[in-house]
Write a structure and sequence with these properties.
The complex is a heterodimer of chains A (377) and B (292). With 377 residues, chain A is an alpha+beta fold. Chain A is 37% helix and 24% strand. Chain A has three domains: 21-92, 2-Layer Sandwich (Dna Ligase, domain 1), CATH 3.30.1490; 98-222, ATP-grasp fold, B domain (D-amino Acid Aminotransferase, Chain A, domain 1, 2-Layer Sandwich); 231-374, Rossmann fold. The chains are: A alpha+beta (377), B alpha/beta (292).
């Protein structure tokens, strides 16, 4: 889960990483007051999670409190790339002599944290990795050992700094690693890390992505913020389904993430267009299956629903009962294609056929049928 | 021969008294897996399906020195501790079924296992099966059949789908390894390819990958660099997955421009690996290759 910039800034503050003085507000009046208190020029920054807010008009430099008021008014309640702006940060504007880059990420290939440092910050790191890979230093850290002073010295010295900024950069590396470790981050990034004309350093942006599997350790984030979810995404989340919306017309419901993806792909390869990814997981009971089927029946974009179950711990009779229950409660003209295989397959098939639901045995023929009913793409 | 598990495998089930642990203990026993002990702290002295339960792995190993493998069903918050316990008790293989372990914890125990020469399978995986010999996992045993093709996969049900089609086509498996759907697995595709290369009971390998990370690309590079002799057939799930969205598995996400299906398929094809478009085609391709 990605944190909002102000959440990440608050964490940086607690861990001794220098952040420009700021205030987070949700009305133009508060923005005016905050700009007045901070004094001088301020930056008004929309608090959204989508990338590229700067280019989309979500970051503005205000010369005075009146301008801060005006920008905040423009941004609050508006949408940036489809995401509603609920809060803005009013931050002291920093004079920048040079922009640097510093982050700690999990490198999946190595299975270890990696410190990334570059004397050329301010741009997208992926862009920099493409154009000037030699300008990025990569230091692999043993996950058991954690960050050591020599790592920090190496990273800091790559940033082309002189004292006192050099010493400060070393401290920032160590502190950023502490953030990374203590908050179970997938990513902790400062881009840019600003070098000011008086040779000090300030983190003028802050990005933290937490590991979803560790969110239970940080209830302060998971409870406070309802991230932007559609009705269907929110409903699926409540029931603990993995659910992702796509833009086709064939709803997909399976057990297991790999099979669900393969089912989407098969529909596509055979000429159709999947409407979603819905994985009910292993061992789902009838009531849960009913909810999942109902969700897809309700979705305006789905015209056909393709249910592909390979029962191991999931029982086909439970699945069948869930499908029948959902169909009984919803009046629908949508077509349903079911493929059942595995544990209690015969019983499942009997239940469905008694209720006039068509069942197929093989995945390919079922996918073909779904594509045929969906009318191709 | 097989890899990782065989008729000499002797298993301790960690988390045996839980719902999942007891259910799958029964299923593994009925498949013929030799389970000598179970562990649940505080439940020592009881039995599950006739298997004696101990308070600690070390105690189980003391009573049953033949133990060499652990399978872990412990809930995610306590799972890392269970892994360290298994490593420190001197087992050779630890299969971590548990889903939802924070990746920072996984990085640490995977590293610890390496330093101690212990093989980890998982986390968030279906386990390992050598058909007819031993099943250390949660997969339905009947879809697999004894044979000479190795499977390595990041997925569960998709593996069953492909194994079922292989079995129906008369192509059995030496060992099927589910390495799991997490971003940092204890055993990688390359590790598995290496095991199958050394195994004289394996003639070909099926590699079932998915979006996220670059493990498939690295496997492709390995196949080229090592001049891998055994034919490899692949299937990659997630051609239609959008970037930035987690597709069920913690590791199945295209992020920062890395991990899309097209790149994986391209790398594998360039390495001479046949990549199936549909899961059912894996068995067809194998049939053709094995005839040669």
């Amino acid at each position: 889960m990605k944190l909002f910039e102000y959440e990440a800034r608050n964490i940086f503050n607690q861990y001794g990483i220098p952040v420009p003085k700021f205030s987070v507000v949700s009305s133009p009046e508060e923005a005016y007051k905050a700009a007045e208190e901070i004094g001088g020029r301020v930056v008004v920054k929309a608090q959204v999670l989508v990338a590229g807010r700067g280019k989309a008009g979500g970051v503005k430099l205000a010369e005075n409190p009146e301008e801060a008021y005006r920008y905040a008014k423009q941004m609050l309640g508006s949408e940036i790339k489809g995401e509603k702006v609920r809060k803005v940060v009013i931050s002291k504007a920093v004079d920048i002599a040079r922009e640097l880059y510093l982050s700690i990420i999990i490198d999946r290939s190595i299975g270890a944290p990696v410190i990334l440092a570059s004397p050329e910050g301010g741009v997208d790191i992926e862009e920099l990795a493409r154009t000037k890979p030699e300008r990025i230093l990569k230091i692999v850290v043993d996950p058991i050992l954690g960050v050591r002073d020599y790592h920090a010295r190496r990273a800091a010295s790559f940033l082309e700094l002189s004292e006192p900024a050099l010493k400060k950069a070393q401290e920032i590396v160590v502190n950023l690693y502490r953030v990374f470790e203590n908050y179970n981050c997938e990513l902790a990034e400062i881009n840019p890390l600003a070098l000011t004309p008086d040779n000090s350093l300030e983190a003028v942006d802050a990005k933290i992505i937490l590991d979803d599997n560790a969110l239970f350790k940080y209830p302060e984030f998971s409870s406070e913020f309802v991230r932007d979810l559609s009705y269907y995404e929110a409903e699926a989340k409540k029931m603990n389904f993995s659910y992702v919306e796509l833009d086709g017309n064939i709803g997909i419901l399976c057990n297991g993430a790999g099979l669900t993806m393969a089912t989407m792909d098969s529909v596509y390869v055979l000429g159709g267009k999947p409407a979603n990814f819905l994985d009910i997981g292993g061992g789902a009971r009838a009531d849960l299956v009913e909810k999942a089927v109902t969700l897809l029946l309700q979705h305006p974009k789905t015209e056909v629903i393709f249910i592909n179950i390979l029962g191991g711990i999931t029982r086909c009779d439970e699945v069948a009962n869930g499908i029948v229950a959902a169909l009984k409660k919803t009046t629908t003209s949508k077509k349903i294609v079911v493929r059942l295989k595995g544990t209690n397959e015969e019983e499942g098939r009997r239940i469905l056929e008694e209720n006039n639901v068509f069942v197929l045995e093989e995945m390919d023929e079922a996918a073909r049928k779904a594509v045929e009913l969906g009318g191709g793409r | 021969m097989t890899v990782l598990v065989n008729s000499n495998t002797r298993v301790v089930v960690q988390g045996i008294t839980g719902r999942e642990g007891s259910f799958h203990t029964r299923a593994m026993l009925s498949y013929g897996t030799k389970i000598l002990a179970g562990v649940t702290p505080g439940k020592g002295g009881s039995t599950v399906e006739g298997v004696p339960v101990y308070d600690s792995v070390i105690e189980a190993v003391r009573k049953h020195p033949e133990l060499n493998t652990s399978i872990i069903f412990v809930p995610s918050r306590f799972a890392s501790d269970a892994v360290y316990e298994a490593i420190d008790a001197g087992l050779d293989l630890v299969v971590v079924i548990t889903e939802g372990i924070p990746v920072h914890e996984t990085m640490k125990f995977v590293r610890y296992a390496k330093l101690n020469g212990v093989t980890i399978i998982g986390p968030n995986c279906p386990g390992v099966i050598s058909p007819g010999e031993s099943k250390v996992g949660i997969m339905p045993g009947h879809v697999f059949s004894r044979g000479r093709v190795g499977i390595v996969s990041r997925s569960g049900t998709l593996t069953y789908e492909i194994a079922y089609a292989m079995t129906k086509a008369g192509i059995g498996q030496s060992t099927s390894i589910g390495i799991g759907g997490d971003p940092v697995p204890g055993t990688s595709f390359i590790d598995a390819l290496e095991m199958f290369r050394e195994d004289d009971g394996t003639d070909a390998v099926v590699l079932i990958g998915e979006i996220g990370g670059d493990m498939e690309e690295r496997a492709a590079r390995y196949i080229v660099e090592q001049e891998y002799k055994k034919p490899v057939v692949a299937y990659i799930a997630g051609r239609t997955a959008p970037p930035g969205k987690r597709m069920g598995h913690a590791g199945a996400i295209i992020s920062m421009g890395v991990g899309d299906a097209a790149s994986k398929i391209k790398s594998l094809k360039e390495a001479g690996v046949e990549v199936a478009e549909l899961p059912s085609q894996v068995a067809e391709i194998l049939k053709k290759l094995l005839k040669k």
